[in-house]
């Protein structure tokens, strides 16, 4: 576990800590966990909460009992049972997941929007049905009252798929050539769609027609924000019946009251990266806005920064456990990041032990990938005289180099450079002497001119 304190707000990174290489056998992993104290102190909130290469999106079911994550490569979805804190099932998919939605309170009904224009419906037993849409999809929303699934994508139309009748209905038409995102209001079920022209078009599911268009970037606001092109709408989120947050491709978040066409507040991320996800947290009246670089938490009323999380890897999706300070982030890395912020909420019931552990298990950040292994390039192997080990089980190929056991590395290093320790020892002694010299009190000696010296003589 790592703890950081940006803006005097404690943030616990539950995904940090020493990790084991994937190529090790289960028996070897168990053996290392018994021997290594750092591995024993590591907190693994959910067992194997990761993807093979990249995680695309993560969601929590409405009943809060299951967490699902989708990623690649190979494309797959994993479901975790929080009561057991472990993997419940894993399913392979034919293509990458763009978005997915829970159609029920638990994991028994899920719909996946994939990047090859397919929509997959899954039940408890697995894939139930698969159908294709005319254009590539970008986002989707599910209206529970009418069983309509709205799919937005690279088209001026929003496709309507009625899951009760099992057929497509007449689509909703927009004034733009592409719809980037869509969101349903949880109170009055207004459907908001963000387009590539910077507009938010709103539809009423009862009349199946457009009821209003919101121009998120007016001319005067474009000048104020200092952008030369009209941004596209990349993220939408409703807080209640009237409050809506709009994220743009230029890294701005605009808060609107639906009764007005002017933004109440404009927040700039300062990175000029598209906003990917927005969430509201009611405990301290906070807004969580995320781009591919950073997650920012700020006050909804005045825009004042509360804290920020910058993991160091590109972010894809954000999921906040309702009513708690626990959040998950899907990233361009195998691990699904887990963060806990006690100041904005307590831990969920299924991991209430976090409140006690966060103060006890704090460790410094790790810079190495694996502490028991050393990464070497091919040239470094040749310098150490270990190039003949390539292809054996003593080296593990990875990217542009190899992983080698740290003990074997130190042994080869001492043979290849027998005087390396003496050189290291002399450098340390020299550095120590220089430090002591700097700490000495230096006397200031005033110089006397030659003419004045002659006068004294």
Automatic annotation (TrEMBL):
Domain of life: Eukaryota
GO terms under cellular component: 90S preribosome; small-subunit processome
Domain Nucleolar protein 10-like N-terminal: residue ranges: 1-365
All copies of domain Nucleolar protein 10-like second, residue ranges: 369-417
GO biological processes: maturation of SSU-rRNA from tricistronic rRNA transcript (SSU-rRNA, 5.8S rRNA, LSU-rRNA)
PANTHER family: NUCLEOLAR PROTEIN 10
Protein name: NOL10
Source organism of this protein record: Mytilus edulis (Blue mussel)
């Amino acid at each position: 576990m790592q703890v950081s304190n940006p803006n005097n707000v404690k943030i616990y990174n539950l995904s940090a800590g020493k990790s084991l290489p994937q190529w090790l056998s289960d028996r070897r992993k168990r053996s290392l966990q018994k021997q290594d104290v750092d591995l024993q102190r590591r907190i693994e909130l959910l067992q194997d909460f990761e993807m093979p290469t990249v995680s695309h999106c993560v969601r929590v079911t409405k009943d809060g009992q299951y967490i699902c994550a989708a990623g690649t490569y190979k494309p797959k979805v994993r479901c975790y049972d929080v009561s057991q804190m472990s993997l419940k099932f894993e399913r392979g998919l034919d293509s990458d997941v763009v978005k997915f939605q829970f159609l029920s309170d638990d994991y028994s009904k899920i719909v996946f929007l994939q990047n090859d224009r397919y929509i997959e419906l899954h039940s408890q037993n697995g894939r139930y049905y698969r159908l294709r849409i005319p254009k590539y999809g970008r986002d989707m929303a599910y209206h529970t009252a009418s069983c309509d699934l709205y799919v937005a994508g690279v088209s001026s139309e929003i496709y309507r798929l009625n899951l009760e009748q099992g057929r497509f209905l007449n689509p909703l038409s927009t004034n733009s050539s592409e719809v980037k995102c869509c969101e349903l209001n949880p109170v009055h079920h207004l459907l908001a769609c963000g387009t590539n022209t910077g507009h938010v078009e709103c539809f009423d599911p009862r009349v199946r027609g457009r009821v209003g268009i919101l121009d998120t970037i007016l001319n005067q606001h474009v000048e104020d924000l200092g952008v030369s092109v009209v941004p596209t709408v990349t993220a939408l989120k409703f807080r209640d019946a009237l409050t809506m947050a709009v994220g743009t491709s230029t890294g701005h978040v605009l808060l609107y009251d639906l009764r007005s066409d002017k933004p109440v507040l404009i927040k700039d991320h300062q990175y000029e990266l598209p906003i990917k996800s927005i969430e509201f947290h009611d405990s301290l009246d906070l807004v969580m806005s995320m781009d591919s670089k950073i997650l920012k938490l700020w006050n909804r009323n005045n825009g004042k920064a509360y804290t920020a999380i910058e993991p160091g890897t590109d972010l894809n999706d954000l999921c906040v456990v309702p009513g708690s300070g626990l959040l998950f982030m899907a990233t361009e890395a195998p691990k699904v990041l887990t963060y806990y912020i006690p100041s904005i909420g307590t831990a969920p019931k299924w991991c209430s032990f976090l409140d006690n552990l966060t103060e006890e298990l704090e460790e410094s950040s790790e810079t190495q990938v694996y502490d028991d292994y050393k990464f070497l390039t091919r040239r470094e192997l040749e310098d150490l005289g270990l190039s003949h080990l390539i292809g054996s089980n003593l080296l593990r190929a990875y990217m542009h180099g190899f992983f080698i056991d740290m003990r074997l590395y130190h042994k080869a290093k001492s043979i290849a450079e027998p005087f390396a320790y003496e050189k290291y020892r002399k450098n340390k002694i020299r550095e120590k002497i220089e430090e002591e010299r700097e700490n000495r009190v230096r006397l200031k000696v005033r110089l006397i001119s030659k003419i004045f010296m002659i006068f004294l003589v």
